[in-house]
Task: structure prediction
Amino acid sequence: MAQDARNLKRSGKGTRVVNRATDTDRHVGLRIRERRVMLGLSQQQMADLIGVTYQQAHKYERGINRVSAGRLFEISRVLKVPVGFFYEGIDDGDSSELPTRQRLCLEVARNFSQIDDEQHQQAVSQLTRALARKEL
Result:
């Protein structure tokens, strides 16, 4: 990726990698956030579950801090997805912004998870099924 090439710094002894977020780090962070929202977890709840501060979890999601292999494994366990989930779609181009439809789906999932009444959840589910059938 073009961003990765900019992370190389020349020194008198050769070239070394400078610790900056890459497109890959941002993509992984975006996928972490997406899954967390789908499950209805706050950043603080997720941070507690993976044993980091809220600030660190926020930096992971923004792609500011790189997620280590061990930490990514722990995140995948907490979010109940395989590690490969975080890399899906990485070759699809710019992942820095969620498409509008995907953003709406995440918002619906977040709001649905906050409905406490089971009858209301079922009503919303039936409504979405009915609307989806009309679209077909």
